[in-house]
Protein 1
Amino acid sequence: MQDNSRVIRQDISWKIIISLGGFFMIALTFALGFFLFYRGIGTFTTYDHSVFEFLFSSTWAPADSHDGGGKVGAAIFIFGSISTCLLALLISLPFSIGVAIFMTEISPGFGRKIIQPIVEIFVGIPSVVYGWLGLTVLVPVIKDVFDTQYGFSVLAASLVLAIMIFPTITSVSADAIRSVPKNFRQAAFGLGSTRWQVIYKIVLPAAKNGILTGVILGLARAFGEALAVAMVIGKTKVFPVSILSPTTNLTSAIAADMGGAMDGGEYNIALWTMALLLFFISLGCIFLIHYISESDGENI
Amino acid sequence: MPNKDNQVLQDTTKAINATILRAKLLDTIMTGVFYVVALFFLVLLIVFATYIIVKGFMDFDISMMAFDHRGIGNQLFNTVYLVILALLISVPLGLLSGIYMAEYAKPGRVTKIIRISIETLSSLPSIVVGLFGYLVFIVMTGSQWNLFAGALAVSILSLPIISTTTEDALKSLPDGYKKGSYGMGATKWQTIRMVLLPACIPQIMTGIILAAGRAFGEAAALMFTAGMSTDINWNSTNLFSSTHPLNPFRPGETLALQIWASRTEAIAENSTQIANLCAAILMIMVFTFSISARYISQHINKKMIGDNK
């Protein structure tokens, strides 16, 4: 009996340890959110700027001191992030869905054995490598082909991001397409549909929510990518006039300027506000994915 | 009016035939388009990988691997050391939370919050994690840039990967494992430790390898935590000296950061070649890690199928 009570005590103590491990995840996420919020809110409280100014003004001249009094309009950075991400999505999406359909509907054997592993390997390639390749190959090519001054451009950033998010969107979409029940297809083929009709009219609409999840995951990755984009975007604090002109974005501003800004100064805090904005964007993506999967009738 | 009826019938047949023909033609065209798209990307990705690896080793010189400021030996060592430190922190925590989510969590609000927390962590921009690490592990502790802070920051990024794979692995086990164990009178913890966890070790290993692969290439989270410099004295015998290789409280630049640094603060004349080499080494590491992860997961598949026979 004594042995029994020892075992039960052990069972209970491990239950507590494991539960603590689970709750640690909440604590960590809240700690992250708290510190980002605590720091990022300073622009609006300590230095007394309006949210409107931060989001929509394009005058970026924060003072690198505790006195404040500068301007913290981050519209150029925000616009840079949004435009590069959307353009990247536009470039990547047709290819991603095309490859996802190819590896599931058209050539499943080849898809599973060859394409799937390759796509998975490319998910894991570090983003600096993409950025480095963009810098040494893409930027000079753009400079020559379009005859621009430097080659650093929205286009270069979007292409790098497009290649980066391609594997994410492809593998999530392929999973979604695979999970469409087989009898959907059999029924459509039985009615005499061609394969393209089955794909276009049956499979894609049925897998719509899964593909959308992949798109959002890809967008979240693109929004948060820092160094790869910073290497090719040019880091010029002006609105881009065309996709060939350089601009800047939220993440490259943080990566480039955080190291030099005085801790707690207006400049430093304004960069924290950008990080807070990025945090909200990725939170928003998570909630959007939950909303989609719940409307799909799948419970988590 | 049989003639007119016949005419209508003929017309309809013709129209249907045309529709079918068009559908078939479109089907062929689209199949072709998919082949072209898939092939294009396959070729692009393969060219991409070979280009990086070939270019990296094109100007290879043994001095580029040297363990001093001219080579990247120190960076390579820092990278490996940092990944090991990060795994030492994130594997136990990830396992605990994975086990919790799979075995202990009851459906409800708290579980949902934990799930959203894990998802938030996994989709956090790494630069944001880097800032958090800088504030909490460097500024608040009043220390210099150091490897340990970098390892903590990277752990935040690898935690969700390990946690999710552990959870998925435990959940995918057949019910019989658990029932059998409970039937023998085992407690929940005994069941988890003696039956469930051993059965999922290969899948958990796959998750750990994937997390390590991600940690190898991480740069943005390390810029403000592990620092952008490295100074190792390989003859140092004092573990607490700031140049001892195994002292985790020293600045430690990694391979990925070296690539970034050669872009922004290129001092050495061969910095481009060095960055090429770093990129190539990172690529090879990623390949090794993904292939071994795949090998392990295929190995378990075989084992599982064998068990079912």
Protein 2
Amino acid sequence: MEGVEHTPTRSSQLTTFSLRQFILRYGVYVSLVVLLLAAAVLVPGIYSPQSLFLVLRQASQLGLVAIGQTLVLLVAGLDLSVGGVIVVTNVVIAEVSAGENANIPLAIGVALALGALVGLVNGWLITRRNVPPFVATLGVLVFVQGAQIAYTKGIPSGFVPDGLNVVNQSVGPLPVPFVLWVAFNLIFAFVLYATPYGRKIYAIGSNREAARLSGIRVDRLIVSAYVLCSLMAVTAGIVLSGYVGYIDRYLGRGFDLDSIAAAIVGGTAFTGGRGTLLGTAAGVLIVQFLSNITLVLGLDEPVQLIVKGLVIIAAVALYSIAARKP
Amino acid sequence: MNTRRLFSLFLVTMLFMLGVSVMAQDEAPTPHVFTVPENPPEYTEEQLADNAYLQSVVRRLTEEYDTSAFKKDPPYRIALAAQGPTNSWAALFDEHARWYVDQLGTDVVSELLYADANGSADVQVPQVEDLLAQDPDALILVPMGRAALSAPVERAMAQGVPVVLCASGVDTDNFVTEVGTNLYSSGERWAQWLVDKLGGEGNIVQLNGIPGVDTAETEALGAEAVWAANPGITVLDAQYGNWSTSEAKQVMEQWIAQYGDQIQGVWSGGAQMSMGVISAYLDAGLPIPPIGGGEYMQGFLRLAAENNVEFYAVQYPDAMVILCIDAALQILRGDPIPRYIDFRDYLERTQDFSNEDMDQFYNPNWSDDVFGPVFLPDERMIELGYLTTPESSG
């Protein structure tokens, strides 16, 4: 009837609520399935065992970084220094080991120590000096890159030991990095979902002040998230070093933004407090499959970037709409 | 012995030691003298059409610049706006510059005004302004962007500071000379070797550098001209590897999965990418096809030597800065100078080579990232960590 304001009924409220919740919870998985189906039609060759092996291996390299990035995003932060940490890890592996397999443990130890230090600096800047995460981690990235160039004078010495070539091997049909990625996902999933630490991380991201008032040591936990993020970047750097077998100054390029994109596409909120490792893993697979599909289709790199950008924008837009309260 | 005799003995001893020290110093190098080539390369109208880069290089190779307006007496203050040690090529570029100026002596170059652009055109533009404010006698510029550095180059020329472009170009034609090589021809030569290797028939894949970067795009154009002239060659795919070993490896892995042994040759616009190509084939356990895309880069040569890879190498040496400095000196002497200087005509050990003569270039004691040829003394190379044992650098 005219002039009568429509009051939403309980059933329509439930429908709206379910659709929103469905998108928030399962949107990334549906998107992944749609993408995989599209790939089956457009580039069926991508499902050959060799091609799948490659996709999973490449996805795992990004996936390791994305685990750490998810942690940081959960506390409403982000880490742009991961790319720099990857390159430094590559240099450290080569210089400390000097190409000798016997020195690999020492090289890895030094890389992890440096990575932890980077994470501590990031966390300290953000929590003690109230520097916005974007600015703090960008500044640390520039510092790390400059320090690496200054130390090596532009020419890193040493060789990546061939013992790290194990990352190019497989465990059954699965690439070693994929097995590592799954293992780390399981470990971090346990920490996030089954320990007080994990609950506190989500609490901080949901409402930092309320978390602080409830007695959670907010600053300490935020710092720990950045340290863990850097350590995962070091892990990715070790895997990539073995993958390339060489000192590559472009190693891990784009991993900073791609890891953020994968987590966001996977449903992790920029504002913190929401997100899952499984969602991030799906986001990683979406990003990686997109890259491989566009490559196999022979699309130019600018077009590849456009496609990737559109997917990220669409995912963020969809989540932001779904996240609005009715 | 009386005082006078003692003093005389002391004086003779000091004079002797001075003479010995003077004789022990390296002789100052003789700067290169650049002239218009007698037999410049020729291109057809079809090749030159719509190829501004090639038109410019071909024209300037045979043009001479009257530098009499810049004539000055030494010593000179030369400004060097460099890329900065963001990678090994650029780091050795700087080392060669400092070493060469040191060799020339302060009687020739009293001061080298240096600016490090950290690989960024945005950083380099104000740096060039700062250098010009110090009133140098000449400016040697490694442009980080063709368009961005055009205006600073024109300002320098307007100020009366002659500009030598080193290793890259700008959009304006208002500079004295450029030292480099015909990148279009480099891409052509890599491609032609592949064509000859395959007997004019076969499938290749093409791996370019960074999209939009002059060097990468020009080299790719050269290659594409060769493919067009050889219809028996099929380009299965062309992608950008961004001059990155890891990115090139990922692309190559996907191509191997997609095309397998259909790939009979690889054109690669840089040695770092060629290393990724070799690595991908090693992981796949497949025989490595011939690679038109080598350079005088230690890591690539090591991998090629270890795996018996057939390749063709074209050079782009960081040591070309020696010629850039010599060009500045020739300008300041007031001698006419060609507007384009191809380093292959003047710098030793910069010729093309292949796996067949690789032993003349490969130095197992260099670190992987070293780009040859290297003219620095071994002691300096060891000090910098680029050389592990005292061997002849080359």
